[in-house]
Amino acid sequence: xxxxxxxxxxxxxxxxxxxxxxxxxxxxxxxxxxxxxxxxxxxxxxxxxxxxxxxxxxxxxxxxxxxxxxxxxxxxxxxxxxxxxxxxxxxxxxxxxxxxxxxxxxxxxxxxxxxxxxxxxxxxxxxxxxxxxxxxxxxxxxxxxxxxxxxxxxxxxxxxxxxxxxxxxxxxxxxxxxxxxxxxxxxxxxxxxxxxxxxxxxxxxxxxxxxxxxxxxxxxxxxxxxxxxxxxxxxxxxxxxxxxxxxxxxxxxxxxxxxxxxxxxxxxxxxxxxxxxxxxxxxxxxxxxxxxxxxxxxxxxxxxxxxxxxxxxxxxxxxxxxxxxxxxxxxxxxxxxxxxxxxxxxxxxxxxxxxxxxxxxxxxxxxxxxxxxxxxxxxxxxxxxxxxxxxxxxxxxxxxxxxxxxxxxxxxxxxxxxxxxxxxxxxxxxxxxxxxxxxxxxxxxxxxxxxxxxxxxxxxxxxxxxxxxxxxxxxxxxx
Length: 479
What we know:
With 479 residues, the protein is of the alpha+beta class. The protein has 3 domains: 6-164, PAS domain (Beta-Lactamase); 224-311, Helix Hairpins, CATH 1.10.287; 319-477, Histidine kinase-like ATPase, C-terminal domain (Heat Shock Protein 90, 2-Layer Sandwich), CATH 3.30.565.10. The chain is 54% helix and 17% strand. It is rod-shaped, with a radius of gyration of 52 Å. The two termini are 71 Å apart. Mean pLDDT is 82; it is low at 470-479.
């Protein structure tokens, strides 16, 4: 299908309707002007001819007066003979006297006379046969005054009136054309103010589709189009940031995968060469392979969980759970690692806490992720303090470290997928995003606070206690 521009559609639809409406209005105005002038002329003739018949009526009642002589004298002295022709018509229907002194043709058609003789008064607007001159004629019967005459008639040329009507018609037409030009100009400007940014948006959207997020829309409007341009520019910023984070994520994950794979490959080759002759080398090599394999497995699980969350396939296996048991397991897993890296974990385990309804494996995954981050972003000699307690019907678990901390500008983004605030430490950038989603699915919150770089970080996890089961759990039941 051929593309139809907004401007063309506006011209065809809106402008066509406007022009049609103006034409109808113009015709109505012209008709009203013509009717007004013709009616005024007719009323003027009627008033004049009534004045004439009044004078003739007076003469007809004067027995000493000669009616024919008075009629002739009236026509000869008619003071408006330069504009109006006054006629006297005899009983046979022929014009016998005129104010101009010229007698019309004997066969001249006089519809107004015929109407007057039939109805008592008649008028006619039309053209005279032969000359084509347009006239207005009015006739009034006077046969009751004198049997010699049947009617008096007044005729006026409409040429001057028609010229006046043409002048007004021309003025109305010019005004209509001016209105149309103004409407076209403003309409094209308005359509252009919409079409231009839309074309710009269309062109830039094509660049977005090709992966170029560097271009932006020039926005000079403070209306809905301006809002659209602003939102698209904001979308481009977000897409650009997401693209950058995605590329950084791919690079980071590739590096994170390469490191353990390199270690595994290196130790596997060493063991193949050694052949197991040195027990110490064998033990150390197998230990590295197991640890790095576990690390790879954890990273793959994170990626799979993230993928499931993105696709909406992430599910929870919920039941009453012992949150202290899961937290204790996570602390135990990283105790030895912290010692090896000369970092201290302080965990004062409470005696009892309410049950929590949730997925214990996912909650343990969150604890492992948070503690792993605390160790990862700490340096030798730093301390990781872990606490768990109940407050206002919620279970609160906090993990505070004295490590490298987080910039205030990065603090709001650390839970964003693919985002890494510190590129000097290992990590994929999705661990906190997955953990935050898991806690949210349990109806809780995960807050991250830091006073700045080198001032440590505190992660606070809040989960609702199971209000349907008030039984307290003790630490002796863990395991």
